[in-house]
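re: ur msg from earlier - yeah i can do the zinc ion complex, just paste it... oh wait u already did. ok heres what im feeding in:
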Amino acid sequence: MANCIFCNNKKISKEHLWGAWWQDYYPASEKDLLTRDGHTITARNSNNDIISEKGLFSNVGDPLAKTTKVVCQNCNNTWMSAIEEDMKKTFHKLFINEEDIISSDDILRLKKWMYLKFCLIDRAYSKQNSLVSSSLSNSKEIKEQINLIRKENWKGFLNGINLPNEFRFFIARATGELKIGSFNYIPLIMLEKDNLLNIKLIDTCMFFNGHFLGILTSNDIVIKFLNNNEKFKGLLPLVNDTIKFITNKKVSARELEDSILCELEKNIIGRKLRRNFSKSI
Ligand SMILES: [Zn+2]
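and the outut:
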């Protein structure tokens, strides 16, 4: 069993992916609790075919009760729970009370929360390595290098400190059909032909949690698309010190997800991007 991704503690424990407070806002229905459902992830096998495999999250009916075993109890109960507590306050303020000013504190809280969830999801999938074709002569070194980059990023985020520079964050208020405990994670790898060890990990993770829509991405295609998109006027990049959050501009989770996936599929030939964990209320 692997160590805690943040502090390297050998004793990792089963922890919830989402903070328990989300369930106060979006309680599970009886049907959810009775339905046990797993999930699949996409990977490449040794023949370079894209295949589906069982994912690492525990099978539970309520998507908000998903658990994962990638961190230690100490991290979970200290700085990680502080990030959840902060997010809860900001969520309530901006998405329930619909206050119209996003303060610099809110921005930092939102970014930290999204990045934390991204790290947990990234580790639980652990499939970036499988995206490297084993037909490449140095596929082993490439995989090692990928592991190294991810580990460095996780270590840097211990105690919620370092957010890697390459990520951009966006948020919106959701309208229409709400998704709960849902996310879509698209890891990609950029390799340079002349130097295959010059690797850049490019990730996009979209969060759909009730009235909250969040996107974290280091993918220039996605960043450009979202910065120039007329359709999603309610989508805000978290960049300035304080931002005005206009209440009447909301975004459909489904439309946003479809548009981003469509944009990525246009640019990545021959790969059907995955979707995971959808539940609507
Ligand atoms: Zn730890």
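cool cool. Residues 4, 6-7, 9, 71-72, 74-75 surround zinc ion (CB under 6 Å). ping me if u need the other ligands too
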